Amino acid sequence: PKVYYQYLTDRIMVTEWVDAVKLAEADRLQTEIVDTKIATKKTIISTLISAYNDMIFKHGVVNCDPHPANVMIRPHPQHPENFKERQLADTIRRASSTSTVTPSPSTTPLLSAASVATPPAAQSSLSAPRHQLVLIDHGLCVSSTETFRYEYILFFRSLLSANTDEIRRLVTRWGVGDSELFVSFALQKPHDASKGFREESIPDDGMGNHRHRHTHAADGRKLTSEEIADMQQKMKGRMT
User: Fold this and answer.
1) Whole-angstrom Cα distance, residue 190 to residue 214?
2) CB-based burial of residue 149 (10 Å sphere; 0-12 exposed, 13-18 middle, 19+ buried)?
3) pLDDT tens across 192-237, in order?
4) What residues in the chain have per-residue pLDDT under 70?
5) Of 194, 234, 189, 229, the residue nearest 212 (C-alpha)
6) What does the CA dihedral 137, 143, 144, 149 come to, rounded to 10 degrees?
7) Are 135 and 63 within 8 A, CB to CB?
């Protein structure tokens, strides 16, 4: 959201009001965003992933509190379809396609010659996504160094190539002694370097649906809150 800097204090941040649907509001998300074809659930997740990739790997300033109530979706304010501007753009294009014909006085279009061309904003936004992701609550943000961003890229490249030596080297530099424990935490699923990637599913209900266990160590045991907090503190120290 836009920040009104003239009203900022040491304790208060003032931003614009945004009308949007929170990810936590499942029913509204379905009826107002998905059913109206503003966005699919897949494109919403893709946009969220892209946003965090940009924050982590490009800008180095990350919103660390992305729970479903802090992530919102709304119709993109600059997309013509969302505010009936598509009809105006179509009218302008139709007028442009017939502008080479000399009209009689009785059939002269109401549009002036200057208004025949499609506005650049409409041209650029008609093919853009119809939805916009909004992140709120920036009270918990972390800035990272360029060195860490580069090492974090190497970390995920090493995961994909199963380069365990590089993974150990990187996490050791970050102050983490158990690389497999850290990988399990980063991937949110059990990881065993000797067996590659593995994921365990357990029944979620009686309808055949499954959910994945999260935050488990490589040996399958659930991480304790102390272990998670310890890794978070070490990572934060490395990033700042």
Assistant:
1) 8
2) middle
3) 665 544 444 444 444 444 444 444 454 555 667 777 677 667 666 6
4) 80-127, 189-223, 228, 231-232, 234-240
5) 189
6) 40
7) yes
